[in-house]
Amino acid sequence: MVFAENGSLVVPGQPLCMIEEFLPGVNVKQLKDGVIVSMKIGIVRYDFSQRIVKVHSLKTIEEIRVGDEVLVEVKDVQEKIAVSEILAVNGRPIKYKRVAIILPNPKIKQEMNKFVGVGDLVLAEVVTVFAGVIGVSIWKPRLGAIYSICNSCGNFLKRTEKTLVCTVCGNKEKRKIVPIYGNLAKIGNMIGGGKWS
Amino acid sequence: MKSNEVKLIREDGRRLDGRAFDELRPLKIEVGVLEKCDGSAYVELGKTKVYAAVFGPREVHPKHLALADRAILNCRYHMASFSVDERKPLGMTRREIELSKVIREALESVVFLEEFPRTCIDVYIEVIQADGGTRTAGITAGSLALAEAGIPMIDLVAGVAVGKINGHLVLDISDIEDKYGEADMPVAMAPRLNSIVLLQLNGRLTGEEFKNALELAKKGIMEIYQQQREALRRKYSGISAEEV
Q1: What is the pLDDT of residues A34-73, one digit of tens each?
Q2: Which of residues 173-212 of B touch A (CB under 8 A)?
Q3: B163 touches chain A (CB under 8 A)
Q4: Residues of chain A with CATH 2.40.50.140
Q5: Most C-beta atoms within 10 A of its C-beta, which of A171, B40, B134, B136?
Q6: What is the ipTM for the molecules in this complex?
């Protein structure tokens, strides 16, 4: 016998069933007396084949998981790593920005400033989330800087055949770029800005 | 200084506002009343009116305050300048700082903070009109706002103040009963867990009176808890199982 019907709305602390009937899945918690209660407001689902109870939350919290594709803004470049801020996850802007570390590639000996620069917008993939610290990688071919700015004057670096050249001062710089480098429409879609040209 | 001289019980054995000793003031609870925050709630208990808003989980600033194993629950209880008879100065008073702390501790006991390491969750409780029982109304509203924000919780928290006036224990004391009564005991509980998360006592109660006051508070809290659950259900009643 379950306390809340399958597909019904439940609130935090509401008893759902006993531990003998279903195993606790997501958004539920087993109390000491063996009662499984909901942790969130949502819709309760009983999986009768696997005997698991879970609650589909009606309000989702922005969570960053391993494998997510993120758009980050580089804040600081150090010898081995770069510190960045996540602006969008899987093509959607996030409300609360999170700090992420761009991790080095052990096979590449060059310093990080050869791949990203301060102020760049970079496409990256989340490779580790541990105790709230997010590590991202830019070492796959589809990942890297999507929009870079000149270290000297802060203007846009235009892509040429072999390098990036500042449109104002002519400064040449190196980055690990994505095939769609400079695609402002894509950036605009990801971070939810107004019109980008 | 509390005084016993003021008559707080009428000839017909009822309180000045016509309530029985074990009766709550008219209670109104709404959820999702504010648009810009992640979760919000409004609680009206008689003339006491309280809003609560929740932001987060978000990154902690400054960074050194972040905890590696859990989130920080920031709680700010504040009374509006126009909430009391005489204008309350802006800024946080000593009382508000203390109440922010006790409310934070009450809410912390039901929130799964360890699910969000190195982040913080902000709970803002704003008293719009004060007529007694503001801290317990704040806890009631804060817990609903947290639930509405999707923060995982083991239970809701509901609170009510019990008092002693003219030798009688009464439930949900108003401002005048608080000022001229003999004792004031705010209690907050996580009802499903049957655990007391806040208990304070101003004034004096005998051991027997204390036990009875606690039972009276539990009765009031269960009534508030039912209304909390109904308010949450009312807010999301239009959502069908297929939409999720």
Answers
A1: 999 999 999 999 999 999 999 999 988 888 999 999 999 9
A2: 190-193
A3: no
A4: 69-192
A5: B136
A6: 0.87
Find out whether B244 and A58 touch, Cβ atoms under 8 Å. yes
Residue B11, domain member (yes or no): no
Quote the minimal CA–CA distance from A94 to chain B in Å: 11
Architecture category of domain A69-192 in CATH: Beta Barrel (2.40)
**Among the four given CATH numbers 1.20.1250.20, 3.40.50.10990, 2.60.200.40, 2.40.50.100, the one describing domain A9-57:** 2.40.50.100
pLDDT < 50 stretches in chain B? 1, 3
CA B232/CA B244 separation, integer angstroms? 16
Does the beta carbon of A60 lie under 8 angstroms from any beta carbon of chain B?
yes
Distance from CA of A148 to the nearest CA of B (A): 26
CA distance linking residue A51 with residue A36, whole number of Å? 13
A14-33 average pLDDT score: 94
The label of the residue with tokens 């027997």 reads: B208
By residue count, chain A amounts to 197
Per-residue tokens: A30: 């087993």
Chain-chain contact of A131 with B118 (C-beta, under 8 angstroms): yes
The answer on pLDDT for A10 being more than 50 is: yes
Count how many domains chain B has.
1
Res A100: pLDDT: 96
Q: How do residues A79-94 score in pLDDT, each as one tens digit?
A: 999 999 999 999 888 9
A30 touches chain B (CB under 8 A): no
Distance between CA atoms of residues B133 and B103, nearest Å = 13
Q: What is the pLDDT of residue B241?
A: 55
d(CA A16, CA A45): 10
